[in-house]
Amino acid sequence: MKYSVGLQDPFAFNVKFWMILSLSLIGGAFLSMLIHHLVKNHRAKGTKKSFMTGKRLEWLKNKYLKHIDKIEEDYLSGRCDMRRTYQRMSHEVRKFTTRATGIKISTLVYSEIAQLHRPKLTDLIGNYYAPEFAFKADPDVRAGIKETKELIRLWY
After folding, report:
1. Which of 76, 89, 140, 144 is most buried when burial is the number of CB atoms within 10 A of its CB?
2. pLDDT tens digits for 47-83?
3. CB of 64 within 8 A of CB of 122?
4. CB 122 within 8 A of CB 113
């Protein structure tokens, strides 16, 4: 018996083979895009947050007012200096607004906060910058604490 071992021309295969191969590749690509789209929409729905209102907002206000009271107590007792007090107040206000609005304020800079169209929040964060970052600053810490509490109390 004679055996011939040689390569065949790639296009010498049956036409059905090429049709099945191309349809399965197209189908696989379509299926992966569909799954990607569904997962992306599911994640977007799960992370979408709305404004807090009613009792939940009141609870949140009370929680963060207590945090500010603790910061004030630490400042008045001398456990915290002026710069650290302003840093802590800024941190707490940013956490409060993030929880109240669903917008991650803690990673935004001043110009981005200004674009949120919340003038009282923008002014307050602007007032924090000098005591937090300047070499020399002589702010009225008690007035800063009062403004912070007022912002939280009057949040809508």
Report:
1. 89
2. 445 566 688 888 999 999 999 999 999 989 989 888 8
3. no
4. yes
